[in-house]
Amino acid sequence: MIFFHDSRSEQYRSPSGAVPCAGKVRLRVYAQGLSAVTLRIWWNGAEYRWYMRRLENELYEYEMQIPEEPGLLWYFFMGTDERGQLWYLGNASDGLGGEGTLSRQEPSSFQITVYDPAYHTPAWMREAVMMQIMVDRFNNAGGTDVKNLPAGSYYHAHWDDDPALVINDKRGNNSANDFFGGNLKGIEEKLDYICGLGVTALYLNPIFKAHSNHKYDTGDYMQIDPSFGTEEDFRSLCAACRKRGVRVVLDGVFSHTGADSLYFDRYGTYGGKGAYCDPESPYRSWYSFQSWPEVYESWWGFNTLPNVDEEDPTYKKFIIDGEDSVLVHWLRAGAGGWRLDVADELPMDFIRALRRREKQVDPEAALIGEVWEDPTNKVAYGELRCYCTGDTLDATMNYPLREAVLGFMQGQITAHGFVRRVESMRENQPREFFYAQMNLISSHDRPRALAVLADAGNMEPERKYRYPIELTPEQYALGSRRLAAAWNLLCALPGMPCIYYGDEAGLYGMSDPYCRGTYPWGREDEALIEAFREAALRRRNSQALKTGGMKIWAAGEDVVLVERSIRGGRDVFGKKAKNERRVLAVNRAAESRWVEFGGETLEVPAQSARVLE
Question: Is the dihedral of CA 606, 607, 610, 611 positive or negative?
């Protein structure tokens, strides 16, 4: 008996991948020794079963009409053998699609993402190289003034100090009240350097007035934090970036505010008109109190971060709908889009409304979400959420790709395992989304990639056990070699490769706060910078690497090959482009390089039997 289906083969599923609404998909299965093959569909909470038409050569076929609204469609197959036993053919055991798995019990389903045919993501995102910057830690221009800091905060005496870790409550929260003096003028001062790396988009961690150094405890959405500068400084930075073809994406923290804020004002800093101080406050309906004022709903139980009700009409007007709402004000001030903090904790209707309003103001503004898992089928708070059907996000922070890249480079998964993960992303995500993804390997919430790739031990211990680390020369050499290869890999894949400031200069560290160190001006690893620059500029100067087609495959356990090409004079979006073919071979155990073709023969680096320890 043979029961076979491959969701990534046009022979068995046509068209493959995500599909627009109201189209058709032809599904086929090969069934030798089986009869009465049935296709089982799950859509919008209901089950459907259809007998499949038998063709010659023991193939069975069903042409399925795709629903007229976006969503997720799931399917598997059932067949009866000669003894009357029922067999199931469902998704692969790892859930990543491709060749199915045979079982006697109801299996997991194959996924078809159904998206709005009008779905459009900004063209510039597909071609961008991004840099993420924490403003306080990047560059100080014009000096510092302690009067700009909240009460109880302080500036480090030396730029090269390690960040401070001060546990200030039973939950292990960090005080985050130490500053280094980085500011918006400091970013503008370094635009020559940034653009010289090939960067065309900046993502700034929160810049609005807040008590902490990370600014995820917003105090006033309409004011730039005084330690970072002024609104005039922000407008100046955006104008300077626009002249260089660089977009600035802001961090929108809309699921909670700070307790020390204009809106909550637990400590009376803002005049006592907040919801904590005044039951008649205009912001009172934004928050949920179990026992006013001391007991209230907060983000993950941190009482410094009271949650807001995003569906409250006055809050929604303030953030989205108002003539000078937070969203609109900063877009008009020069921002090129938003990254939504904890997007999977925001109501989907809130994100939909935000998207509609943003695109009214600037159709080419980006909307990126912080979603750590598969953005096509994330389950959050009991709700299945798909962020790529055309009504919510343009892209997410691609943490699943980060895990795959680091896992491959460290030898935790094989080249075949890496390829399967990438192909699953391509299969489940609409092309518009897949080519706009924010592809990162470090962030402010994760250990720096160099530290992870150096195999220096656990880089994510419980916060109270974190400390500044020093890598041995051997560890640093291993980590930096792997990091350069990983960056090449990001630059070869569809999506926006993103540099976390300082990664390219050799900065490393454990999780927060040590992944948030200062940029090592004067102590940079120039060779690593050049490796990052070379890969980014190669991508910037190649249309194939930005919007060309992709083939990806494994050559043994240690080598991944990525081919990007433009054929027939057009890229995957139908835009005219010069025919081109680029191939990257990443050998995690030795060198990684771009390779040339000799006739039809592809020369790849020699495969190693094992990964270097």
Answer: positive
Confidence of residue 596 (pLDDT cuts 50, 70, 90): low
DSSP string, 354-411: HHHHHHHH-TT-EEEE---S-TTSEEETTEEE-S-SSSS-SEEB-HHHHHHHHHHHTT
Rounded to whole angstroms, what are the CA distances from 551 to 140, 492, 584? 44, 11, 11
pLDDT tens figures, 388-399: 999 999 999 999
Is the model's pLDDT at 497 over the cut of 50?
Answer: yes
What CA–CA distance (Å, rounded) separates 42 from 75?
Answer: 6
* Angle 147-149-155 from CA coordinates, rounded to 5°: 95
Distance CA 503, CA 498 (A): 10
* pTM for this predicted structure: 0.95
Choose the catalytic residue: 136, 225, 265, 370.
370
Q: CA-based diameter of the chain, in Å?
A: 83
Percent of the chain as helix, strand, coil, to the nearest 5: 25, 25, 45
Q: Minimal CA–CA distance to 132: which of 442, 546, 402, 452? A: 442
349 part of the active site: no
**What is the rounded CA–CA span in Å between residue 69 and residue 391?**
11
Which residue out of 217, 233, 260, 341 is catalytically annotated?
A: 341
pLDDT at 185 over 70: yes
Structural contact between residues 361 and 325, judged by C-beta atoms closer than 8 angstroms = no
Is residue 370 flagged as an active site residue? yes
Give dist(CA 601, CA 584) in Å, integer. Answer: 14
